[in-house]
Amino acid sequence: MTENKNPITLFDYLGRVRDSDLWFSFTRSPVIVTSACVTLIYLIVTIFAPIIAPHDPFDLASIDLLDASLPPFWMVSGEIRFILGTDDQGRDVLSTIIYGSRISLFVGFASVIFSLVLGVSLGLISGYVGGRLDAFIMRVADVQLSFPAILIALLVDGLARTLLPREHHDEVALYVLVFAIGISGWVQYARTVRGQTLVEKGKEYVQAARIIGIRKWTILLRHILPNVTGPVLVIATIHLAIAIITEATLSFLGVGVPPTTPSLGTLIRIGNDFLFSGEWWITIFPGVALVLLVLSVNLLGDWLRDALNPKLR
Amino acid sequence: MLAFIFKRLLQSVVVMMTVALIAFALFRYVGDPINNMVGQDTTLEERAELKERLGLNDPFMIQFYRFVRDASVGEFGLSYQHRRPVKELIAERLPATLELALVSAILALAIGIPMGVYTALKRYGFLSRTFMTISLVGVSLPTFLIGILLILFFGVILRWLPTFGRGDVVEIGWWTSGFLTASGLKSLIMPSITLALFQMTLIMRLVRAEMLEVLRADFIKFARARGLPTRAVHFRHALKNTLVPVITITGLQLGSIIAFAIITESVFQWPGMGLLFIQAIGEVDIPVMAAYLVLIAFFFVVINMVVDILYFVVDPRLRVDKALVNGQ
Amino acid sequence: MTQLTLLQINNLEIEFPSRKSVLRAVDDVSLSLEKGDILGIVGESGAGKSTVGNALIGLLEPPGQMTKGEIFLDGNRIDNLPDSEKQKIRGKEIGMIFQDPLTSLNPLQTIENQLVETINLHLGLGENDARQRAVELLDQVGIPDSDVRVKQYPHQFSGGMRQRVVVALALCAEPNLIIADEPTTALDVSIQAQILDLMRGLCKQKQVGMVIITHDMGVIADITDRVAVMYRGRLVEHGATEKILGNPDHPYTQSLISAVPRPDIKLIRFPQVTYIEDVAEKNTEIDITKHWLGKARDYEAAPGPLVELKNISMRFTTKPAFLRKNRIFLDAVNNVSLDIHEGEVFGLVGESGSGKSTVARIICGLYTPISGAINFAGTELTALRKQSDLDPFRKQMQMIFQDPYSSLNPRMRVLDIVAEPILFHHLAETRREVEIIVKDLLEHVGLGAQSAVRYPHEFSGGQRQRISIARALATRPRFLICDEPTSALDVSIQAQILNLLKDLQEELGLTMLFISHDLPVIRQMCDRVGVMKDGFLCEMKETEVLFENPEHEYTQHLLNLMPRLKGLSLEGLDMQPQPNQS
Predict the structure, then answer these.
(1) Inter-chain contact B259–A302, Cβ cutoff 8 Å?
(2) What is the ipTM for the molecules in this complex?
(3) C387-408 b/e (C-beta count within 10 Å ≥ 16 → b)
(4) Global pTM?
């Protein structure tokens, strides 16, 4: 009895997703759904920032010093025009948060992608090729692992800062930062992928492919890579949270993004000066925005790790 | 065992050399050392003479050798920014950082490990879940934000604790200690909590994950099948096996406390190595940067070696290479 | 239930609720056991036998729960006791032995500590007395130099020794009932017999009742007094071992026993297993000249043997080191020479570590031997350097592996898995043609064509092996290597797969290298056999000659280790006529 089956359609795939354990576990927890929504909101808001933000904090023409240091709208002397208040220059805090989140998310995602690509590639090659190359890469990884990521990021950034003249530096600072955070994070991916690669390499379906005659690179990409990416997703989510925090920390310390493109960390630093004079909203709201974002990402990462772990089912 | 220690020592030396190389390259080739040392109106001849006198024209290996030789006794030359010997600066700042790191480390371990064990054993209890939620928040709060919030609350609003600085210190030899004065101790509270919180939650989650893993192991099942009471199973068997891999990670974490101190010192204006380093980066004060690098590397290398040796001591499987062949 | 009855189980039912449904793992099982008797619970995977064992000792894995029934120990009901009471019974009244001795022991504690802890808990002896007793126990289970070894760590013992330690631990509080869950499955064949003898001896001597849970008929035939057969959670049949094995009533038991490979009889074919609801037998007759599998089978007949191995040696570096003197090597294969003729089934048998799998992988080109040559149809393969030169030969030889769960890429659909070799060797013109060929192959091995769109995890172990076979046949090979193809499968599935292989071999005229550690299986499948030990080829003869008249002492040793399986029913077996029957 032959089957008249068409190639798998999108509906079949979606149907399978809906029936899967992953989706079930996802929809069961309201907290996780909320986190996912929050993260989604952040993404949408920051992508469409110019449309969504009520004001443009970079447009010098629209800023009026007379609006400076206004509290949030629910407090005395607050205005509805500036929901979360203004800073000492008259910029709308909500808008600065939106644009700041944009930078934070950009640096976060970009660093993670950089780390991921670098780490997964090195891990794959290291695990599959083995031998001296493997030993070398792992040695470098071990050494780097003994230094905390933030220190490495600081160092790379500091080095760039000293090597480039000031004007140049501001232009590329964002990319230098992405590079710095990215290079400090590849080890985790590489090690995990390498471990998985070693496991898969010994499996019999890889041997079967070699017996057929399939070449090394094809085996690596077609057989091994799809089977080692599972844990990578979990690492990436958690790494995203760490990357965002690292960028915020560096910016807070003054060695992160340049002042022309402030991230949430920069905003907190600026606002910190006004904490003692009672204008708490300039630093607290960016702080809340940062924590909310990182918390949502962390919750998602945690849930993903538990949901994808076959042993816990 | 001796062979193992020797191999590790060798590895450590290699790492130190690599770091020294980077630090040296930084020191010597980034920017012009002469420029940073003299004033505007020093003539070209005087500069050339200075260069010769400082041995900056000698071949690379000789200069590197001198650097390493000096560094091993802590001699890093003069700070560009402060115009004082780097050695002195370090001596001044080191105790502050070390005391802070020590207190934070003890806090992180003393709270993190027991909480990790508790949340693993009582997995579904209300208290457990509360702790896990708090820990998740703890991991999501950047260290500097924790510091700011603590300052705002306890320093500005409640006015219980000082908001910056180290308080009064007592000099013992070249060491300055804040442990022995009331204001010193009070100043220590918020910074150490700030520094410890992140590590604490990390350690707690780690211990919990490891312990849950161990509790699923076959030998635990067999222990229960032999009738061992739950308490014995949990503490005598599961816990010990959990702590073995935790040792390594904990060591690394503690190392990173020293690095994270940079942030805490910035927020609290704590006069330690970290603050010095940040200022140095801002001012491009190369000698200080290089010195900090080498010093930090040294700490990490030592911590890592201690952890490795500890691991070796604790896990009998690593020890017996040859005996297995004879053991049968 | 009399006063003598040690263990009584009535109408036991155990369920595992999951989010989609409730799995009834054990359904209405009733058993009894007297003091000093050994009861075997036998069944294939999924039968529920381990679940019964876990329930007896009160360590059911959550979310499993006992929903019906009663368990009595020495006349007292034990299944409804609170946990604290159950814990007191464990170890003292009931001892349990698990399958894997390596993971059963705490790696960080000495044997002494683990023994003394248990002894103290139940017997309350002083420290010195407890230590004394620990040493005595090790003596009883047959560990030499017990006073020295007691202070060692688990990883310093070999597998068999470790299991003896586990037995000692289970017995140290003098329980009346022992439950052993697959106690010898993880051990080498030569050790299995020793451990079984030890356990039986101790049981009879101390008048302890034992429940042995196993899938291995050999174990049942060897040491049990009574046996209970389970299938999908139900108790299918139970009674005295002699009766059940020699004259089973229930059709499942009959088919289970008839599927067990016999050491002393050669069958034409394994019997058709009808009771198991699994895949259909291959019943499609094909016209070999017109079918895909028959096309282009116009290889020239090989001048001599199809496969020749000449003085092959293989060395692995188990401990790499910078200095040569510190490296440790393993000589996996030592100067092995053998020939395999076209159309024959050559068997390679040996224990684990004998090098047989390594030989197979050397032939396929997965490993490069450090010396020696391999000839295939007259061409020396080991002389070929370039990958592209080897490709035409790769097409002609394929391999089937042992572990059905790791021999298929979990991320690929079955269609793509079987199509991969066809596409690589350009054996078809269009995508459509490939699809037809693949579906046809799948039908030919007994799976439906619609299995092509599914993923490996949707299939059982036996079905996956069929997929592997389909993949291996896709390049129309001349030479098929089967590396323990059924060792990981249940006995009844094994019979089906072996039948399939036999049928395919006859139909396609395949040359086969069949590797196994299981002598009865080798006897059923192979024309000639080679025996390997520690990398050496000890003996190589025709199957019947080897089994009737082994010359090498290792071969004799292996033959002695075969399970006797005396008293097993011969019903339903398709036997070859014996030449020397009077």
Answers:
(1) no
(2) 0.82
(3) eeeeeebbbbbbbbbbbbebbb
(4) 0.81
